[in-house]
Amino acid sequence: MMMPVFWGAAGLWAYSYAGYPAALWACKAMRTPRAAHANDGALPLITITIPVYNEAAVIAATLEAVLEVDYPAERRQIVVISDGSTDGTDAIVRRFASRGVELARMPERSGKTAAENEFRNALRGEIIVNTDASVRIHRNALRALVAALADPSVGVASSRDVSVARAAAGANPGENAYVGYEMKVRALETALGGIVGASGSLYAIRAELHRIYLPAALSRDFTAALSARRHGYRAVSVPDAICFVPRSASLRQEYRRKVRTMTRGLGTLYYHRVLLDPFRYGSFAWMLASHKLCRWLLPWATVAMIAALATNASDSMFARLLIAGAAVSTLLAAAGWFWPRTEPMPRAIALPAYGVAGIVAGLHAWIRALTGRQAATWEPTRRETLSSA
């Protein structure tokens, strides 16, 4: 009786991770490639912002790396936005003042988006480049982002993230597989018009779009692409704008990151829910629903699948086998949860652990969003330290 529910939920999984990319690929094959926009070679003034909260351990190395990026010093402003840091981060940033680094400090912790709102009108650049203290930007990445924004139809240009980890680290390789998959989907979306969400690790946005006020509990990087579309622009993924993103140091850390980002993402999608109207936004509405909403419904689809299988387990060997497989995956996820951070995690454990943790984190995020527990403050993901890329 419940098996139609199972197959419906399984169909949502198949569509979200296989059917949607296949549809994008088919649409791309039938579409005439967009003509490249000529670049006159002029470099606009840009502002590079680095929001931080208690990043004393990494901020000096981050700023050294940013200062080495290939973009003329006289055409850039670098601003570290400190959300009431208390660990000495601000003192370290002030040591870079003679090299053109500015500190914008919130007197008390208010949250990343609130801090960005506070200082958005103090940013002088025509283009605002947002990045993170834990990542490393490829030397040529900024020029690639700026070149993409030379196209007047583009409002947001997002990096191509590369997930990296030290060979001896316990960071989950499942994260690497997911990031690679996500970048391929964004490349297909770009070919059809534009992506539905920018990378929080590195993206560039026109200043007039960045200055739009955003409620403190919402996600600015997700909003960037949505706000661009609402104002008649596209958001694109730029393959040459490489950003090296260290993997989370443990499955527990990745779980907390997923809960936080999805909770904020759900609130942001609801805030921009008008973009889900296909009569007004056409293919963008389809891509937004497929890439974000369908994926975020998958935790509930999983619950429905398990309930359907449990109902039919007494009469169906197929149901019993799938329940056994789910039980094994859960045990592997438990092993991954307690895996030592200093030891490499085998892929046989890492992949199912990453998947199960993502499902549970999704349910946790939905509960937080539905109960109004969308905290404005954020705890930056303490990732592995990277050398200059």
Summary?
With 389 residues, the chain is of the alpha/beta class. The chain has helices at residues 3-29, 59-67, 89-94, 112-119, 141-148, 173-191, 207-210, 220-230, 251-271, 278-312, 317-337, 347-370; strands at residues 46-52, 76-82, 101-105, 127-131, 136-137, 154-164, 202-206, 234-246.
Q: What CATH architecture of the domain at 46-248 would you give?
A: Alpha-Beta Complex
Strand order of the largest sheet: 3-2-1-4-7-6-8-5
What's the number of helices?
12
> What's the helix-strand series?
HEHEHEHEEHEHEHHEHHHH
Q: What percentage of the residues does DSSP assign to strands (E)?
A: 5-15%
Which bin fits the share of residues in helices?
Answer: 40-55%
Structural class: alpha/beta
Task: Give the oligomeric state.
Answer: single chain
Distance between the termini: 56 Å
Query: How many strands appear in the DSSP assignment?
Result: 8
| Mean residue pLDDT | 89
Low-confidence stretches: none
CATH topology type of the domain at 46-248: Spore Coat Polysaccharide Biosynthesis Protein SpsA, Chain A
What does it look like?
With 389 residues, the chain is of the alpha/beta class. It has a domain at 46-248: Spore Coat Polysaccharide Biosynthesis Protein SpsA, Chain A (Alpha-Beta Complex), CATH 3.90.550.10. 50% of the residues lie in helices and 14% in strands. It is built from twelve helices and eight strands. The chain has an eight-stranded mixed sheet with strand order 3-2-1-4-7-6-8-5, with helices on both faces. α3 links the parallel β2 and β3. The radius of gyration is 21 Å and the shape is globular. It starts with a helix and ends in a 19-residue tail after the last helix. The mean pLDDT is 89.
